[in-house]
Prior knowledge:
Layout: H1 16-32, H2 44-102, H3 105-124, H4 132-148, E1 151-154, E2 166-173, E3 181-186, E4 188-191, E5 194-197, E6 199-205
Parallel strand pairs: 2-6
Antiparallel strand pairs: 1-4, 3-6, 4-5
Amino acid sequence: MAQDNGKGSFSADIPQSLLDEAVEAVDKRDAGAAPPADPAAAPAGERTEAERLRAELELSQAHGREAFEKLKEEHEKFLRAAADLENYRKRAQREREEVQKFGVEKLLKDLLPVVDNLVRALAAAPPDDPLSGGVKLVLKVLEEVLARNGVKSFHAVGEPFDPKNHEAIVTIPSDGPAGTVLLEHGRGFTLHDRLVRPALVGVAIAPAGGAGPDGGKAG
């Protein structure tokens, strides 16, 4: 039972043995308590765990960099492959267009002598030859067909000799300017602006014993 022993005092009927045990427990707890931790120094176990985590982080970053480099390399390979494919597509397109435009070149070369012979036949025929009209019609139709397929003819008479477009098959002594085309044995032809056959021409040269192109004597 608790008793009031006067103003400001209080006593209870607590056995002395219990009080002694409580004091002893407090003393033991205080004696076994760890000293305050040093914030600058972590326990060995915590340091080991931090080092492990740091190592794992560094390894993960290294793997990430390696993966990024591989990804970058694969991306560059993809870009190169895409560029090669695009170049191949363009080259194939050009080759297909070349075939479409110039695939008839061999046939054209075989037809050109026919055109030449028709022109010569008309030049040699008498004006009143009844066959001339038929030959002219055949030549006209043939030239129209060639024109629809990109074939054009050109003349060279009166022009300076151009080895890129003319083939000299004969030289003709002349008092005129040397190197001028005086005779055309056959017209030149182009296929889509590509030279198929040069004009077959005769070219003026200085007459024997006359002045050469440079004003001197011809050899």
